């Protein structure tokens, strides 16, 4: 006895497996993008801090230090420049799976000290 719907369960199961694989692939891609973006942001922060920490050595030496830090975190330093004593850094990180690149920028420099914000020790305001 054969009915007209034999094999339907196999087709539905195959369709469900394909749908699960598509969802898993999309989640993997999204996770890769988020991870690359976070890695780029972290590398930009550290590279900017490294450049600002070596600003007294000159802009070229400071940016070379930023490049070294960026390469250590497996990202590419896209630009490094100074605005007065502030280091401005841009980096790119490759997204796993060849999807593209994630970029980030950061700024680091000395903190301005205002005389009214600093109280001498032992003096009540």
Question: What would the keywords be for this entry?
Answer:
125 residues; alpha+beta; three-stranded antiparallel beta sheet; 3 strands; Rv3654c-like; transmembrane helix; membrane; Tad_N; transmembrane
Describe, in short, the structure shown.
With about 120 residues, the protein is of the alpha+beta class. The chain has helices spanning about 10-55, 60-70, and strands at about 75-85, 85-95, 100-110. The chain is about 50% helix and about 20% strand.
Query: What's the order of the H and E elements?
Result: HHEEE
Give unreliable regions as ranges. none
How far do the termini sit from each other? 97 Å
Shape: rod-shaped
Keywords: Membrane, Transmembrane, Transmembrane helix
InterPro entries: Rv3654c-like, Tad_N
Protein name: Putative Flp pilus-assembly TadG-like N-terminal domain-containing protein
Organism: Amycolatopsis taiwanensis
What does the model show?
The protein is α+β, with helices and mostly antiparallel strands and 125 residues long. Helix content is 48%, strand content 20%. The chain has 2 helices and 3 strands. The protein has helices spanning 8-53, 59-72, and strands at residues 76-83, 86-94, 101-108. The protein has a 3-stranded antiparallel sheet. Strand 2 and strand 3 (101-108) form a beta hairpin. Helix 1 packs antiparallel against helix 2. The longest helix is centred in the N-terminal third of the chain and has 46 residues, at 8-53. The mean pLDDT is 87.
């Amino acid at each position: 006895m054969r009915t007209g719907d034999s094999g339907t369960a196999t087709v539905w199961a195959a369709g469900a497996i394909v749908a699960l694989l598509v969802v898993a692939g999309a989640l993997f891609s999204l996770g890769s993008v988020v991870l690359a973006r976070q890695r780029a942001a972290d590398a930009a922060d550290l590279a900017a801090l490294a450049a600002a920490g070596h600003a007294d050595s000159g802009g070229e030496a400071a940016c070379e230090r930023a490049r070294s830090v960026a390469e250590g975190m497996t990202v590419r330093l896209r630009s490094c420049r100074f605005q007065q004593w502030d280091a401005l850094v841009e980096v790119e990180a490759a997204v796993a799976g060849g999807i593209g690149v994630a970029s980030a920028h950061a700024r680091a420099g000395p903190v301005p000290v205002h005389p009214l914000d600093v109280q001498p020790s032992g003096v009540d305001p």
